[in-house]
Write a structure and sequence with these properties.
By secondary structure, the protein is α/β, with parallel strands linked by helices. It contains ten helices and twelve strands. Helix content is 40%, strand content 16%. α1 (12-22) links the parallel β1 (2-7) and β2.
């Protein structure tokens, strides 16, 4: 039986992985979050991991406030970069595999076709740079790693793009959504299942685990509203430079899932995933 330690267990992805593992007889699982473990503290991180002696670790811990990272890049680097490195060193000492969750934003967005797993990375904002550093530290400190890049995650509970769009409509706010940012809308529940499948393979490397297909933010929003009963609500299309924000995301950051698909790990089309999400939320 695999005993998993999920770091970042109270976040959307971590909590879903915890739930799925609890229902899977092949896994036992324990979780920890920032209120119990500061991954930027190397000694504490190392001691915690050695004390609990898991057979594998999934690191979901991250500071994902992209604009917050732009305002405070040093904190982003400590958490997303060096924190991941601390976990990797402890895993290497114990000889146990590590799954590290990363992002499509490690790419610069200048491609016109979806990025493959081993395409050159070039982060262009502080959040992306901190996540890129995390990837580099994991790869350099520990060969038994799975680096999982994902994109545009939407999850039940809390704030996400789908909720923001629908809540804006309910509040009669005008909608302005960019047309030139493109990626893969990805359902948190689908990603959690894919990560658990990946852990069981023993095939280390870099993986792009996203729902298939890609869309602009505008197309994503339009699909959500059409399916949620707001087809009559208009959206004003804009381009990214018209939307002022502290961070500059890559414009085209769609990912190809090649490595996962080779192992039989695929995620359904993003539109089907949105339908499933809306159904569960009672919004379809």
């Amino acid at each position: 039986m695999t005993q998993l330690l999920v770091i970042g267990a109270k976040g959307k992805l971590g909590s879903r992985i915890m739930m799925n593992c609890a229902e899977n007889p092949d896994f036992s699982v324990i979780g920890v979050d920032v209120d119990e473990l500061d991954i930027t503290d190397f000694s504490a991180t190392r001691a915690y991991i050695h004390q609990h002696s898991p057979t594998a670790i999934i690191n979901c811990a991250a500071w994902t406030d992209v604009d917050g990272c732009a305002r405070d890049p040093q904190t982003a680097l400590r958490v997303n970069g060096y924190g991941a490195g601390n976990i990797a060193i402890a895993c290497a000492e114990m000889g146990i595999p590590m799954v590290h969750i990363s992002t499509n934003e490690v790419f610069d967005g200048t491609s016109t076709t979806p990025y493959n797993e081993y395409d050159p990375t070039r982060p262009i904002n502080p959040y992306a740079y901190s996540k890129w550093v995390g990837e580099q530290m994991v790869m350099r400190h520990h060969p038994r790693h799975y680096i999982v890049r994902t994109a545009w995650l939407f999850a039940h509970g809390g704030k996400n793009f789908i909720h923001s769009i629908i809540n804006a409509v309910k509040a009669n706010k005008p909608l302005r959504v960019v047309t030139d940012e493109v990626a893969n809308p990805t359902y948190n529940d689908d990603l959690a299942q894919a990560v658990i499948k990946l852990v069981a393979t023993g095939r280390y490397g870099i993986y792009h685990l996203v729902n298939s297909g890609s869309a602009s933010r505008y197309a994503f929003a339009r699909y959500v509203l059409d399916r949620a009963g707001y087809a009559d609500v208009s959206i004003t299309p804009i381009i990214s430079r018209e939307w002022t924000r502290p961070s500059t995301p890559p414009t085209y950051a769609s990912l190809n899932n090649n490595n996962g698909a080779f192992l039989g790990i695929t995620l359904r089309h993003w539109q089907d995933a949105v339908d499933a999400f809306l159904t569960t939320e009672g919004l379809l």
